[in-house]
């Protein structure tokens, strides 16, 4: 492998094509670098269902064990199951997955003990530099006594921990369609949902890292078409889709209509605030709906706005002692889950909320889905700074308009707001817009897109 690993070491994880960009020998170096940077004497590893995952995961374990570190392998798991293991065992962890990327990709999501994130500024750059150096000079000197590699099953413990955080004892029977997308939801859902009063209709539960039915990315509308159709056909109460590594969940209502992740964030925030006596801080990124901070305040909480990205959310949760955090991308973070994200726990909250009253999901979420949103719209541009400057000049001198630069450019008026963020890895600008009604949102969306794409 080439010594320059900047193309596969991203802001939050390692991700690239196997074996073209990385392979098992490099995974071994990553394992050694991980334990050197974290200073761990024991770690935990897990992997998804991709064909390359078991080999990469075992190579990483070999690299760690060669330096005298004991490795606990939990084998097939979701990413949030790995976070559970890291938290419950108080060990640094490494999860082998490329989430929703195509089959030829794989990656590593790493964390310190207690599921604390490892990103570019919190150790990932150091890990990359060590792996680069060793790929040129040879592997580091092994320890006199190598560490052990042992297996441990954590699925039952993971399920019990989540079920202990949501009261599902009095929910009415519900019919739920779950689309696992041939990803790790097919592994975790049967155990977590066992014993709940659910008529479960499984879709694509067979673990298959080649994704034969559709890409395991439920944020792309094309990938929930099958789920929407099945919910309507079955007369189900709701549908839930998980992404490839099952750390994100996406919900559709009884009519098959998508429920925006911001509405789920607001719903779960209200429930978590109630569980904490009507007090607590809730983190939301700056492109979640206006509904989120409104609902948080209405339920006695304090909303805190952050940049987009899980490292920013987790850092703010730790700094503020927040009880919950949510993102527009269907990542949901819980203080009672070591500030880590778990789509499964969010799904359990939705089931508890729906099953605790008699109305349909569409009526339940209406109180949390108050505005018209555009969703994220990507545009390929040659000159990101130039386009952002053009947008700024178009709005900065208008009455009643505020601008801020927390993450890209956010422009806010009385009846609407929009945010434009540059991608860190591609020549893209990402637009999110929201307004108090659909015509205003459409007008603003098109007005800004015209400037972006000029």
Automatic annotation (TrEMBL):
It comes from the Bacteria. GO terms for biological process: carbohydrate metabolic process. CDD domains: PMM_PGM. Its cofactor is Mg(2+). Signal peptide: none annotated. InterPro entries: A-D-PHexomutase_a/b/a-I, A-D-PHexomutase_a/b/a-I/II/III, A-D-PHexomutase_a/b/a-II, A-D-PHexomutase_a/b/a-III, A-D-PHexomutase_C, A-D-PHexomutase_C_sf, Alpha-D-phosphohexomutase_SF. Pfam families: PGM_PMM_I, PGM_PMM_II, PGM_PMM_III, PGM_PMM_IV. Belongs to the phosphohexose mutase family. This is Phosphomannomutase/phosphoglucomutase. It comes from Streptomyces phaeolivaceus.
């Amino acid at each position: 492998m080439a010594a320059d690993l900047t193309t596969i070491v991203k802001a939050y994880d390692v991700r690239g094509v196997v074996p073209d960009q990385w392979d098992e020998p490099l995974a071994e170096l990553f394992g050694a670098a991980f334990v050197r940077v974290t200073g761990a004497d024991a770690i935990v590893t897990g992997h998804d269902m991709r064909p390359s995952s078991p080999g990469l995961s075992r190579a990483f374990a070999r690299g760690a064990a060669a330096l005298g570190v004991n490795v606990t392998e939990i084998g097939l798991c979701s990413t949030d199951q790995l976070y559970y293991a890291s938290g419950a065992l108080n060990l640094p962890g490494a999860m082998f997955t490329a989430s929703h990327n195509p089959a030829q990709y794989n990656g590593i999501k790493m964390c310190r003990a207690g599921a604390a994130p490892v990103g570019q500024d919190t150790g990932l750059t150091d890990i990359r530099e060590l792996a680069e150096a060793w790929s040129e000079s040879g592997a580091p000197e092994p320890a006199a006594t190598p560490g052990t590699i042992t297996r441990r099953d954590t699925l039952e413990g993971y399920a019990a921990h989540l079920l202990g955080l949501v009261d599902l004892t009095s929910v009415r029977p519900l019919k739920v369609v779950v689309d696992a997308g041939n990803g790790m939801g097919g592994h975790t859902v049967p155990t977590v949902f066992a014993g709940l009063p659910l008529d479960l209709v499984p879709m694509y539960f067979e673990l298959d890292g080649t994704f034969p039915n559709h890409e395991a990315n439920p944020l792309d509308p094309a990938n929930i078409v099958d789920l929407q159709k099945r919910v309507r056909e079955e007369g189900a109460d709701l549908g839930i889709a998980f992404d490839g590594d099952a750390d994100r969940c996406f919900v559709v209502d009884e009519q098959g209509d998508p429920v925006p992740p911001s509405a789920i964030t607001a719903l779960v925030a209200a429930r978590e605030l109630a569980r904490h006596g009507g007090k607590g801080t809730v983190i939301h990124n700056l492109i979640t709906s206006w509904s989120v901070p409104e609902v948080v305040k209405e339920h006695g909480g304090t909303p805190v706005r952050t940049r987009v990205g899980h490292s920013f959310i987790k850092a703010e949760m730790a700094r503020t002692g927040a009880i919950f955090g949510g993102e527009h991308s269907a990542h949901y973070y819980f203080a009672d889950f070591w500030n880590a994200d778990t789509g499964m726990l969010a799904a359990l909250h939705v089931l508890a909320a729906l099953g605790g009253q008699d109305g349909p999901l569409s009526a339940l979420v209406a109180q949390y889905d108050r505005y018209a949103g555009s969703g994220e719209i990507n545009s390929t541009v040659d000159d990101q700074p130039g386009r952002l400057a053009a947008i700024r000049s178009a709005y900065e001198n208008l009455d009643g308009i505020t601008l801020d630069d927390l993450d890209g450019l956010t422009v806010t008026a009385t009846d609407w707001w929009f945010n434009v963020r540059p991608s860190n890895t591609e020549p893209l600008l990402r637009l999110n817009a929201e307004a108090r009604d659909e015509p205003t949102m459409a007008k603003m969306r098109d007005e800004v897109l015209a400037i972006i794409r000029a």
